[in-house]
Write a structure and sequence with these properties.
Layout: H1 17-44, H2 50-56, H3 58-63, H4 67-73, H5 89-98, H6 121-137, H7 146-168, H8 173-182, H9 187-199, E1 230-236, E2 240-247, H10 248-253, E3 259-260, E4 272-273, E5 275-278, E6 284-287, H11 289-300, E7 308-311, H12 314-320, E8 334-336, E9 342-344, H13 345-367, E10 377-383, H14 389-401, E11 408-412, H15 413-424, E12 444-450, E13 455-463, E14 467-477, H16 481-496, H17 498-507, H18 509-523, E15 532-536, E16 556-559, E17 562-566, H19 567-591, E18 596-600, H20 607-616, E19 621-623, H21 631-641, E20 646-650, E21 654-662, E22 675-678, E23 681-692, E24 697-699, E25 707-711, E26 718-726, E27 739-748, E28 760-767, E29 770-777, E30 783-787, E31 801-803
Parallel strand pairs: 1-10, 10-11, 12-18, 14-20, 18-19
Antiparallel strand pairs: 1-2, 2-3, 2-4, 5-6, 5-7, 8-9, 12-13, 13-14, 15-17, 16-17, 20-24, 21-23, 21-26, 22-23, 25-28, 25-31, 26-27, 28-29, 29-30
Length: 805
């Protein structure tokens, strides 16, 4: 029998009423509803373009599909044609939701039953999926009660008619619906329709289909690596670090039921100093408050000289990921401890992360009555949004060395904070007039994440279905709270002498740590009206103070064991850093009409910074959440539980690969050293082949502009694609000063029978917070992919390519 309702020559058989209800609904869904879903798909993606769209989005789609679903659209390498008619309901749903970019979600959002009266295309899609799951995926006995049948039938009948009017302007399915409701079934019919709907089932489909890691865990999918019941986050900050966790069950009951470890009874009890102490054998022996205390004791006894004490060392990673080749981050990068001794950056960071990792696992064990946890954990590690790709990959590799081999998500700090503030908006935002409006769909806001080392600034838009879209690439600088510390310590060096102060740090590190803590304590209460502060001079430096050596001498007073800073000097020091933030925010607000500024991060708790921002932007809503210093940490847990909340970001750089261009006119090549002759053909070497332009909107997990390349040698069996970034929108060469190498991928093309006519397609995929590049052998369909990495790319041997004309 065909899909149309009609008579059959096969003898009928008697079904009980409840089984008959089930088969009728199966038939209605697998025929008429499926036909309308295919119609919607064809309206959004022209049939001739369907195969190309499926290939472009292959990586992200395969993450959302089971094996049977993948077979429907990726049967074999090089498969050229496919029609919507070939796809079942579960695949149609995934495609409609994920690659039909102009299809808005229903009013209730994707993955949820639609509102009654919502006759939009997306509501129809969700209604069909919801009813199909209700009668089949959630029904093991193949029966539907009369009451449920009547409800489902009327709902589907009304939706079909309304959708057909919208799509075609006609109503031809009304008669077919009546025929299915009255028809009798053969045994073969009943088995076929039942089998069709069961084969289209997807056990995970009842949850949002954006990313597999968003799906809750149950017995059916608990073995999947992205479906852990626990999410644990490590916020590795410049000045302070912390960890927190939550279970998916707690998240569903109360998203804010996040447990952050309490490190001490101080005001920063949920964070510990980012300080690491290594012994003479380079073994990590303490971290955080414990490291400071142990090192102080060693210093008091004069036994600290062979130890390594690192504090606030995260900023050294930021400095090494700059734009110049001299400061480029590599796997050989070294960082200095407080006394100038060096260790490999990877070693220090991996050991510090391992400490936080192990400490959190021990706390989880305590929560579990002393027993080891058996389930997997999704780990989240925070990084500043202004960091480049090499620094992010460095942190991922450090986490891997620390024992976090799988299930690791890198969270951008302002995004994590934004997710946390969304959850606390109704009860904890300080400013009443903003609390019910800031996160309404359609609202845009600037988020200012002022931490200890860096300040990340970006602009977000709130979308329906609890999503966030980035409107402006993350920008900022090293303007965090430690910037102020550096300015204060420059004055110390002037007053006590630079050489004397360095000797003090070397010989009396305990006194130095006390001075740092004293300054940190004083800073918390400084505002624009603070008249003065007094810092205790350590005994080592007493009687060595000469304020006349400082350019700020008129604002200083050295008396006894106190060094006093008056209000003018405090304002000068604070304004130097706060004015940089204010100026940067002002420039962004000139480009975007934003009314709300959301301040998060530890430095955002500074009264001086808050007052500066309020005065400068008096016509804006300045919002500071309670526990601003914990917004990133707790938001990172939320991000791990639902990473697909961020649907798009803005490219910070231009991305491309190195290629060689055939020369048509040698006069156009200004640098003749770039000319190379290969097999009698002149090429211009080192050309930047652009794939992504700086400032472009990047949809998560969607392949960007794809280009095809060809080998330069007939016997060539591999093409090596070297990947580069540039701060320019249209770079010309890969060795321009604004360009930096990120890594490479090798794509094998072993069959040389077609000589130079062997295409390899390259595409960039911005999945989550990191980037992946893929090279596809067009002939075999094999995919080579790698995430960008920080290590050197100075190998001499090259495997050349040119663009396909």
């Amino acid at each position: 029998m065909g899909d149309k309702a009609g008579p059959s020559d096969t003898p009928f058989f008697n079904l009980d009423k409840l089984s008959e209800n089930y088969i009728r609904l199966c038939r209605l869904i697998t025929t008429i509803c499926s036909s309308l879903l295919r119609h919607i798909l064809s309206n959004h993606i022209k049939p001739v373009n369907l195969r190309n769209e499926l290939d472009i989005n292959r990586t992200s789609l395969e993450q959302k599909m089971n094996t049977q679903q993948k077979k429907q659209i990726y049967l074999k390498a090089g498969c050229k044609s496919i029609e919507a008619q070939d796809l079942d309901i579960s695949v149609l749903y995934i495609l409609l939701r994920n690659i039909c970019t102009k299809l808005p979600p229903p009013k209730t959002g994707w993955g949820k039953p639609p509102q009654k009266g919502d006759n939009s295309e997306s509501a129809f899609i969700e209604r069909v999926r919801h009813i199909r799951n209700s009668i089949s995926a959630h029904n093991t006995h193949g029966k539907v009660s009369d009451t449920d049948f009547q409800q489902y039938w009327e709902e589907l009948e009304h939706s079909i008619i309304e959708m057909e009017k919208k799509l075609t302007g006609d109503v031809v399915y009304r008669g077919a619906i009546s025929a299915i409701k009255d028809m009798k079934f053969t045994k073969d019919d009943a088995e076929r329709y039942k089998l069709e709907i069961q084969q289209s089932e997807d056990q995970n489909e009842s949850e949002p289909q954006d990313l597999p890691k968003d799906r809750p865990c149950d017995g059916s999918n608990a073995k999947k690596p992205r479906c852990s019941k626990l999410v644990a986050a490590i916020d590795f900050g410049t000045a302070y670090s912390g960890h927190a966790f939550s279970s998916r069950g707690d998240f569903e009951n109360d998203p804010l039921q996040i447990k952050a470890h309490k490190w001490s009874q101080s005001l920063l009890s949920h964070k510990t100093p980012t300080s690491a102490l290594f012994d003479e054998n380079k073994t990590l022996i303490a971290f955080g408050y414990e490291a400071e205390q142990k090192f102080k004791e060693l210093s008091d006894d004069g036994k600290h000289h062979d130890h390594y004490f690192f504090e606030r060392f995260k900023m050294q990673l930021y400095n090494k990921s700059g734009d110049t080749k001299q400061t480029m981050l590599t796997n050989k990068s070294m960082i200095r401890d407080i006394s100038g001794k060096e260790l490999p950056a990877m070693y220090v960071f991996s050991k510090a992360i391992k400490y936080m990792h192990d400490h959190l696992l021990n706390k989880l064990k305590e929560e579990n009555n002393g027993e080891e946890l058996k389930e997997e954990i999704n780990w989240v590690l925070t990084v500043p949004a202004i960091w480049d790709d090499s620094a992010k990959q460095f942190m991922r590799d450090a986490a891997k060395q620390a024992g976090i081999n799988d299930n690791l998500t890198i969270a951008l700090e302002p995004e994590a904070a934004s997710m946390y503030c969304k959850k606390i908006q109704l009860v904890k935002l300080k400013e009443p007039k903003a609390e019910f409006q800031i996160f309404s769909p359609g609202n845009q806001y600037l988020i200012l994440d002022a931490g200890g080392g860096t300040v990340d600034i970006t602009i977000h838009e709130v979308l329906p279905d609890d999503r966030i879209k980035e409107l402006h690439k993350a920008t900022g600088g090293a303007w965090g709270g430690t910037y102020l510390d550096d300015e204060f310590f420059k004055i110390f060096e002037e007053c006590f002498g630079k050489d004397e102060f360095e000797e003090f740090k070397r010989d009396d590190l305990a006194g130095y740590i006390d001075l740092v803590k004293d300054l940190e304590k004083q800073k918390r209460d400084i505002s624009t009206t603070t008249p003065k502060i007094s810092l205790t001079i350590p005994p080592y430096l007493q009687n060595k103070c000469d304020i006349s050596r400082s350019k700020f001498s008129k604002g200083l007073e050295c008396k006894g064991e106190k060094l006093k800073f008056d209000g003018w000097l405090i304002n000068t020091l604070y304004s130097e850093v706060c004015d940089k933030i204010k100026e940067h925010v002002g420039n962004l607000l000139k480009e975007h009409n934003i009314d709300i500024i959301l301040m998060v991060g530890g430095f955002s708790e500074s009264l001086f910074l808050q007052e500066t921002m309020t005065k400068a932007f008096s016509n804006k809503h300045i919002v500071v959440p309670n526990e601003a210093s914990l917004a990133v940490l707790k938001g990172a847990v939320l991000f791990g539980l639902k990473p697909s909340s961020i649907i798009s970001r803005v490219a910070k750089f231009t991305y491309g690969v190195e290629t060689s261009l055939p020369i048509k006119d040698e006069e156009t090549v200004l640098d003749k050293k770039r000319i190379e002759i290969i097999d009698g053909v002149r090429y211009e070497r080192g050309v930047f082949s652009k794939h992504v332009t700086k400032g472009a909107n990047l949809e998560v997990d969607k392949a960007q502009y794809e280009m095809a390349y060809l080998p330069l040698l007939k016997t060539q069996k591999t093409i090596r694609f070297r990947v580069y970034t540039s701060s320019l929108e249209n770079p010309k060469y890969i060795d321009d000063p604004e360009c930096r190498p990120l890594g490479y991928i090798n794509v094998d093309i072993p069959d040389t029978s077609e000589e130079l006519d062997r295409k390899v397609r390259v595409r960039f995929i911005f999945g989550g917070t990191e980037i992946k590049v893929e090279g596809v052998n067009e002939r075999t369909g094999e995919i080579a992919s790698v995430k960008f990495f920080y290590s050197d790319t100075t190998e001499e041997q090259r495997f050349l390519c040119k663009p396909d004309d």
